[in-house]
Amino acid sequence: MAKEAVKRFDTQDLLEELKIYVQVGHHVNVLNFLGIVTENMVHGEFFVITEYCRFGNLKDFLLKHRHAYREEGDDEIAENIGVRLRPQRYTFGKIDLLYWSYQIAWGLQYLASRDFVYGNLSTRHVLLGEGNIVKLSGFGSPCRLQLFNKLTPQSILSLERIAPECLQSDGTFTSSSDVWSYGVLLWELFSLGCDPCWGLIPHGRFADSFECVSTLPTPKYANDEVYQIMRHCWKQEPQERPSFVELCSRLNCLIPRSMLKVCLYSMC
């Protein structure tokens, strides 16, 4: 997939995005940088080339294909998870939601290991590609990935995604605040794209965001184990939240044994 800069301010944005891609490096669950075309850079035009994810972002996918969701037994999910999404047949189920959740946590764990904080995590910033692989993207958005201490609450569009300590201090974001946002993303996933706290947080009322998130009910397609993971992500004290390593471990235990080898093979 190529992105073209056609205006000078677009060029600057793409250059910033390019720097981030170079710093992040390669990971299966992060949208990977493939190259750059600078032939017309003297005119303020160039291409940043990244991987192409044919199914688009998870938010739109879930909303468009929610009618294709179905509950499955362990026997039914024994088919290769990497070929479950086919043109004209987008059947998916709880195993896919768990698989995507695991991959997103793994990608975020990688970013945390490289001292990056994502900031504005949502299903809109997660792309779904071939083999049922999901990738974190959105590095060039106004809420782009940054090094620790570089984000401000004003750059985040959805208050419920901001951990309470980020609103009560100098706006420093950390891996622990990403865990809070990840819990909100899980709620989005297991409600098949619904918006948490939609219309419930008055403009500028930061304090209401914590109350709204902490009282979110179990989403329709989540079991109690998944909901408890969300609740742990929403602990008010950052040190009480699980790390992404812990989240990967807990989600790994929820994926049926028959699928584990297939999942790991698909992500290699």
TrEMBL record:
<protein>
    <recommendedName>
        <fullName>Protein kinase domain-containing protein</fullName>
    </recommendedName>
</protein>
<dbReference type="GO" id="GO:0005524">
    <property type="term" value="F:ATP binding"/>
</dbReference>
<dbReference type="InterPro" id="IPR000719">
    <property type="entry name" value="Prot_kinase_dom"/>
</dbReference>
<dbReference type="GO" id="GO:0043235">
    <property type="term" value="C:receptor complex"/>
</dbReference>
<dbReference type="GO" id="GO:0005886">
    <property type="term" value="C:plasma membrane"/>
</dbReference>
<keyword id="KW-0547">Nucleotide-binding</keyword>
<feature type="binding site">
    <location>
        <position position="124"/>
    </location>
    <ligand>
        <name>ATP</name>
    </ligand>
</feature>
<dbReference type="InterPro" id="IPR001245">
    <property type="entry name" value="Ser-Thr/Tyr_kinase_cat_dom"/>
</dbReference>
<feature type="domain" description="Protein kinase">
    <location>
        <begin position="1"/>
        <end position="255"/>
    </location>
</feature>
<dbReference type="InterPro" id="IPR011009">
    <property type="entry name" value="Kinase-like_dom_sf"/>
</dbReference>
<dbReference type="GO" id="GO:0007169">
    <property type="term" value="P:cell surface receptor protein tyrosine kinase signaling pathway"/>
</dbReference>
<dbReference type="InterPro" id="IPR050122">
    <property type="entry name" value="RTK"/>
</dbReference>
<dbReference type="GO" id="GO:0004714">
    <property type="term" value="F:transmembrane receptor protein tyrosine kinase activity"/>
</dbReference>
<dbReference type="Pfam" id="PF07714">
    <property type="entry name" value="PK_Tyr_Ser-Thr"/>
</dbReference>
<keyword id="KW-0067">ATP-binding</keyword>
